[in-house]
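Task 17 of the worksheet. Students: predict the tertiary structure of the chain below and write it out as C-alpha coordinates. Keep your answer in the requested format; marks are given for formatting as well as content.
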Amino acid sequence: MALLEEFNLYIPDSRIEDFASLLSVSKIGSETWCNKHNNKDFGTTRNWLAEAKDAWLELDWRKLMNELMITLGFDSGYVAQGGDIGSFLARILLANHPQCKAFYINMLALLSQNELLTTVNITEDEAQHVQRMLNFSATGSSYLLEHGLRPSTIGLVLSSSPLAMLAWIGEKFLEWPDSRYPLSVDTILTMVSFYWYTDTFPRSMYPYRALASAAAANVLFSVATSKEKPFGYSVFPAENILLPKAWAEKAYPNLVFYKRNDKGGHFAALEQPRIFLQNIEQFLAVARPLIGL
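Model answer:
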Protein backbone atom coordinates (compact mmCIF):
# COMPACT_ATOMS: atom_id res chain seq x y z
CA MET A 1 0.00 0.00 0.00
CA ALA A 2 1.33 3.43 -0.91
CA LEU A 3 2.09 5.76 1.98
CA LEU A 4 -0.27 8.66 2.48
CA GLU A 5 1.27 12.10 2.75
CA GLU A 6 -0.26 15.16 4.34
CA PHE A 7 -0.80 18.09 2.04
CA ASN A 8 -1.91 21.69 2.19
CA LEU A 9 -4.15 23.34 -0.35
CA TYR A 10 -3.46 27.05 -0.58
CA ILE A 11 -5.83 29.57 -2.11
CA PRO A 12 -4.67 33.20 -1.96
CA ASP A 13 -6.66 35.60 0.19
CA SER A 14 -7.12 37.77 -2.90
CA ARG A 15 -9.05 34.94 -4.55
CA ILE A 16 -11.31 34.60 -1.53
CA GLU A 17 -11.86 38.36 -1.42
CA ASP A 18 -12.75 38.36 -5.13
CA PHE A 19 -15.26 35.59 -4.52
CA ALA A 20 -16.88 37.45 -1.62
CA SER A 21 -17.12 40.64 -3.66
CA LEU A 22 -18.58 38.88 -6.68
CA LEU A 23 -21.09 36.95 -4.60
CA SER A 24 -22.16 40.00 -2.63
CA VAL A 25 -23.00 41.97 -5.79
CA SER A 26 -24.62 39.01 -7.57
CA LYS A 27 -28.27 39.88 -8.00
CA ILE A 28 -31.06 37.55 -6.99
CA GLY A 29 -33.35 37.30 -10.00
CA SER A 30 -36.76 38.96 -9.91
CA GLU A 31 -39.63 37.09 -8.31
CA THR A 32 -41.70 35.04 -10.73
CA TRP A 33 -44.71 32.80 -10.34
CA CYS A 34 -42.45 29.75 -10.75
CA ASN A 35 -39.55 30.70 -8.48
CA LYS A 36 -41.69 31.73 -5.51
CA HIS A 37 -43.27 28.27 -5.21
CA ASN A 38 -41.71 25.47 -3.19
CA ASN A 39 -42.74 22.94 -5.82
CA LYS A 40 -39.44 21.34 -6.83
CA ASP A 41 -40.79 20.66 -10.31
CA PHE A 42 -39.80 24.25 -11.15
CA GLY A 43 -36.21 23.98 -9.86
CA THR A 44 -34.37 26.18 -7.37
CA THR A 45 -36.62 28.63 -5.53
CA ARG A 46 -35.80 32.30 -5.18
CA ASN A 47 -36.21 32.20 -1.40
CA TRP A 48 -33.79 29.28 -0.98
CA LEU A 49 -31.21 30.95 -3.22
CA ALA A 50 -31.41 34.22 -1.28
CA GLU A 51 -30.96 32.45 2.07
CA ALA A 52 -28.14 30.29 0.71
CA LYS A 53 -26.36 33.37 -0.65
CA ASP A 54 -26.30 34.94 2.81
CA ALA A 55 -25.07 31.69 4.36
CA TRP A 56 -22.34 31.28 1.72
CA LEU A 57 -20.96 34.72 2.50
CA GLU A 58 -20.49 33.54 6.09
CA LEU A 59 -19.16 30.04 5.31
CA ASP A 60 -15.54 29.33 6.25
CA TRP A 61 -14.75 26.53 3.82
CA ARG A 62 -10.95 26.53 4.18
CA LYS A 63 -10.85 24.31 7.26
CA LEU A 64 -12.62 21.59 5.26
CA MET A 65 -10.12 21.28 2.44
CA ASN A 66 -7.27 19.75 4.46
CA GLU A 67 -9.64 16.97 5.51
CA LEU A 68 -10.01 15.79 1.92
CA MET A 69 -8.14 12.55 1.17
CA ILE A 70 -7.11 12.54 -2.48
CA THR A 71 -5.06 9.45 -3.00
CA LEU A 72 -5.11 5.79 -1.98
CA GLY A 73 -2.82 3.18 -3.51
CA PHE A 74 -3.18 -0.62 -3.47
CA ASP A 75 -0.67 -2.82 -5.30
CA SER A 76 -2.26 -6.19 -4.54
CA GLY A 77 -5.62 -5.38 -6.06
CA TYR A 78 -8.59 -3.20 -5.30
CA VAL A 79 -12.36 -3.00 -5.39
CA ALA A 80 -14.00 -0.19 -7.35
CA GLN A 81 -17.01 1.71 -6.04
CA GLY A 82 -19.06 4.34 -7.78
CA GLY A 83 -22.35 6.12 -8.09
CA ASP A 84 -23.61 8.23 -11.01
CA ILE A 85 -20.70 8.67 -13.47
CA GLY A 86 -18.58 6.65 -11.07
CA SER A 87 -20.82 3.63 -11.60
CA PHE A 88 -19.83 3.60 -15.27
CA LEU A 89 -16.16 4.12 -14.43
CA ALA A 90 -16.26 1.20 -11.98
CA ARG A 91 -17.56 -1.06 -14.74
CA ILE A 92 -14.83 0.09 -17.12
CA LEU A 93 -12.12 -0.49 -14.50
CA LEU A 94 -13.41 -3.97 -13.84
CA ALA A 95 -13.55 -4.89 -17.51
CA ASN A 96 -10.15 -3.50 -18.49
CA HIS A 97 -7.81 -3.78 -15.50
CA PRO A 98 -6.88 -7.07 -13.83
CA GLN A 99 -5.94 -5.24 -10.63
CA CYS A 100 -9.62 -4.37 -10.20
CA LYS A 101 -11.01 -7.49 -8.57
CA ALA A 102 -14.64 -6.57 -7.88
CA PHE A 103 -17.03 -3.64 -7.97
CA TYR A 104 -19.83 -2.23 -5.88
CA ILE A 105 -22.15 0.50 -7.13
CA ASN A 106 -25.20 2.36 -5.87
CA MET A 107 -26.59 3.44 -9.23
CA LEU A 108 -27.25 0.82 -11.88
CA ALA A 109 -28.43 2.09 -15.24
CA LEU A 110 -29.69 0.09 -18.18
CA LEU A 111 -26.98 -0.76 -20.68
CA SER A 112 -29.27 -2.38 -23.23
CA GLN A 113 -32.98 -2.78 -23.93
CA ASN A 114 -32.57 -6.47 -23.08
CA GLU A 115 -32.25 -5.45 -19.43
CA LEU A 116 -35.68 -3.77 -19.47
CA LEU A 117 -37.84 -6.72 -18.47
CA THR A 118 -41.46 -7.19 -17.45
CA THR A 119 -42.85 -6.17 -14.08
CA VAL A 120 -43.85 -9.74 -13.25
CA ASN A 121 -40.93 -10.46 -10.91
CA ILE A 122 -40.56 -7.07 -9.23
CA THR A 123 -42.09 -5.78 -6.02
CA GLU A 124 -44.63 -2.98 -5.76
CA ASP A 125 -41.96 -0.66 -4.33
CA GLU A 126 -39.67 -1.47 -7.24
CA ALA A 127 -42.47 -0.88 -9.76
CA GLN A 128 -43.11 2.56 -8.25
CA HIS A 129 -39.38 3.27 -8.27
CA VAL A 130 -39.13 2.30 -11.94
CA GLN A 131 -41.97 4.71 -12.72
CA ARG A 132 -40.13 7.50 -10.88
CA MET A 133 -37.04 6.66 -12.93
CA LEU A 134 -39.02 6.98 -16.15
CA ASN A 135 -40.49 10.29 -14.95
CA PHE A 136 -37.01 11.56 -14.12
CA SER A 137 -35.73 10.57 -17.55
CA ALA A 138 -38.61 12.48 -19.14
CA THR A 139 -38.61 15.65 -17.03
CA GLY A 140 -35.48 15.79 -14.87
CA SER A 141 -32.57 15.07 -17.17
CA SER A 142 -32.44 18.15 -19.41
CA TYR A 143 -29.31 19.27 -17.53
CA LEU A 144 -27.54 16.22 -18.99
CA LEU A 145 -28.18 17.40 -22.54
CA GLU A 146 -26.97 20.90 -21.69
CA HIS A 147 -23.80 19.55 -20.05
CA GLY A 148 -23.04 17.18 -22.88
CA LEU A 149 -24.12 19.07 -25.99
CA ARG A 150 -23.38 22.68 -24.96
CA PRO A 151 -20.62 22.35 -22.32
CA SER A 152 -18.83 25.52 -23.38
CA THR A 153 -21.90 27.71 -22.96
CA ILE A 154 -23.04 26.37 -19.61
CA GLY A 155 -19.45 26.24 -18.35
CA LEU A 156 -18.85 29.90 -19.14
CA VAL A 157 -22.19 30.98 -17.67
CA LEU A 158 -21.76 29.14 -14.39
CA SER A 159 -18.12 30.17 -14.02
CA SER A 160 -19.08 33.84 -14.25
CA SER A 161 -21.07 33.99 -11.02
CA PRO A 162 -20.99 31.96 -7.80
CA LEU A 163 -24.71 32.56 -7.44
CA ALA A 164 -25.40 31.13 -10.90
CA MET A 165 -23.36 28.05 -10.02
CA LEU A 166 -25.18 27.70 -6.71
CA ALA A 167 -28.58 27.83 -8.42
CA TRP A 168 -27.58 25.23 -11.02
CA ILE A 169 -25.83 22.74 -8.75
CA GLY A 170 -27.94 23.51 -5.69
CA GLU A 171 -31.03 22.39 -7.58
CA LYS A 172 -29.63 18.84 -7.75
CA PHE A 173 -28.65 18.80 -4.07
CA LEU A 174 -32.19 19.89 -3.20
CA GLU A 175 -34.09 17.50 -5.48
CA TRP A 176 -32.06 14.30 -5.67
CA PRO A 177 -31.56 13.35 -2.00
CA ASP A 178 -34.16 11.55 0.08
CA SER A 179 -36.61 14.38 0.84
CA ARG A 180 -37.18 13.01 4.35
CA TYR A 181 -33.53 13.73 5.17
CA PRO A 182 -32.54 16.88 3.23
CA LEU A 183 -28.94 18.04 3.04
CA SER A 184 -28.08 21.09 5.12
CA VAL A 185 -27.39 24.43 3.46
CA ASP A 186 -23.81 24.30 4.80
CA THR A 187 -23.25 20.92 3.14
CA ILE A 188 -24.57 22.18 -0.19
CA LEU A 189 -22.50 25.35 0.02
CA THR A 190 -19.38 23.35 0.86
CA MET A 191 -19.84 21.11 -2.18
CA VAL A 192 -20.45 24.05 -4.51
CA SER A 193 -17.44 25.86 -3.01
CA PHE A 194 -15.21 22.98 -4.05
CA TYR A 195 -16.28 23.54 -7.65
CA TRP A 196 -15.95 27.31 -7.48
CA TYR A 197 -12.54 27.61 -5.83
CA THR A 198 -10.94 24.90 -7.95
CA ASP A 199 -12.45 26.07 -11.27
CA THR A 200 -13.38 22.47 -11.98
CA PHE A 201 -17.05 22.66 -12.90
CA PRO A 202 -16.54 23.24 -16.66
CA ARG A 203 -14.16 20.26 -16.82
CA SER A 204 -16.43 18.09 -14.67
CA MET A 205 -18.93 18.03 -17.52
CA TYR A 206 -16.65 16.14 -19.94
CA PRO A 207 -18.15 12.68 -19.22
CA TYR A 208 -21.60 13.96 -20.17
CA ARG A 209 -20.55 14.22 -23.82
CA ALA A 210 -21.05 10.51 -24.43
CA LEU A 211 -24.17 10.32 -22.26
CA ALA A 212 -25.83 13.26 -23.99
CA SER A 213 -24.94 12.02 -27.47
CA ALA A 214 -26.62 8.71 -26.68
CA ALA A 215 -29.67 10.44 -25.20
CA ALA A 216 -29.99 12.76 -28.20
CA ALA A 217 -29.89 9.72 -30.50
CA ASN A 218 -32.51 7.98 -28.33
CA VAL A 219 -30.21 5.06 -27.57
CA LEU A 220 -28.84 3.72 -24.30
CA PHE A 221 -25.33 4.66 -23.25
CA SER A 222 -23.24 1.51 -22.95
CA VAL A 223 -19.82 0.69 -21.49
CA ALA A 224 -17.82 -2.50 -21.23
CA THR A 225 -18.43 -4.41 -18.03
CA SER A 226 -17.52 -7.74 -16.48
CA LYS A 227 -20.03 -10.52 -16.02
CA GLU A 228 -17.54 -12.69 -14.11
CA LYS A 229 -15.92 -10.67 -11.32
CA PRO A 230 -17.95 -10.21 -8.11
CA PHE A 231 -20.50 -7.43 -8.30
CA GLY A 232 -22.40 -5.72 -5.48
CA TYR A 233 -25.37 -3.39 -5.86
CA SER A 234 -27.28 -1.30 -3.33
CA VAL A 235 -30.49 0.58 -4.00
CA PHE A 236 -31.38 3.75 -2.13
CA PRO A 237 -35.09 4.63 -2.24
CA ALA A 238 -34.71 8.16 -3.65
CA GLU A 239 -32.12 7.26 -6.31
CA ASN A 240 -33.11 8.49 -9.77
CA ILE A 241 -31.86 5.44 -11.69
CA LEU A 242 -32.11 1.77 -10.78
CA LEU A 243 -32.56 -1.82 -11.86
CA PRO A 244 -34.94 -3.96 -9.79
CA LYS A 245 -33.32 -6.99 -8.18
CA ALA A 246 -34.80 -9.52 -10.63
CA TRP A 247 -33.59 -7.48 -13.60
CA ALA A 248 -30.11 -7.07 -12.11
CA GLU A 249 -29.82 -10.79 -11.35
CA LYS A 250 -30.76 -11.69 -14.92
CA ALA A 251 -28.44 -9.11 -16.50
CA TYR A 252 -25.52 -9.77 -14.14
CA PRO A 253 -24.90 -13.42 -13.23
CA ASN A 254 -21.96 -12.18 -11.14
CA LEU A 255 -24.24 -10.30 -8.72
CA VAL A 256 -23.15 -11.65 -5.33
CA PHE A 257 -24.59 -8.93 -3.09
CA TYR A 258 -27.82 -6.94 -3.29
CA LYS A 259 -29.23 -4.56 -0.68
CA ARG A 260 -32.29 -2.32 -0.76
CA ASN A 261 -32.01 0.37 1.90
CA ASP A 262 -34.88 2.20 3.56
CA LYS A 263 -33.47 5.73 3.29
CA GLY A 264 -31.08 7.72 1.14
CA GLY A 265 -31.00 9.06 -2.38
CA HIS A 266 -28.68 9.87 -5.27
CA PHE A 267 -25.91 11.26 -3.04
CA ALA A 268 -25.99 8.22 -0.78
CA ALA A 269 -22.46 8.55 0.60
CA LEU A 270 -23.13 12.17 1.52
CA GLU A 271 -26.67 11.64 2.79
CA GLN A 272 -26.32 8.38 4.72
CA PRO A 273 -22.58 7.73 5.19
CA ARG A 274 -23.00 5.08 7.90
CA ILE A 275 -25.49 3.04 5.90
CA PHE A 276 -23.36 3.49 2.80
CA LEU A 277 -20.25 2.22 4.59
CA GLN A 278 -22.17 -0.70 6.09
CA ASN A 279 -23.29 -1.72 2.60
CA ILE A 280 -19.71 -1.68 1.34
CA GLU A 281 -18.47 -3.69 4.32
CA GLN A 282 -21.25 -6.24 3.82
CA PHE A 283 -20.36 -6.57 0.14
CA LEU A 284 -16.65 -6.97 0.93
CA ALA A 285 -17.45 -9.70 3.46
CA VAL A 286 -18.99 -11.65 0.58
CA ALA A 287 -16.50 -10.66 -2.14
CA ARG A 288 -13.16 -11.00 -0.35
CA PRO A 289 -13.18 -14.81 -0.11
CA LEU A 290 -13.96 -14.90 -3.83
CA ILE A 291 -11.09 -12.61 -4.89
CA GLY A 292 -8.45 -13.46 -2.29
CA LEU A 293 -8.04 -9.98 -0.82
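Marker's comment: The beta strands are 78-82, 100-105, 231-235, 255-260. The chain is about 50% helix and 10% strand.
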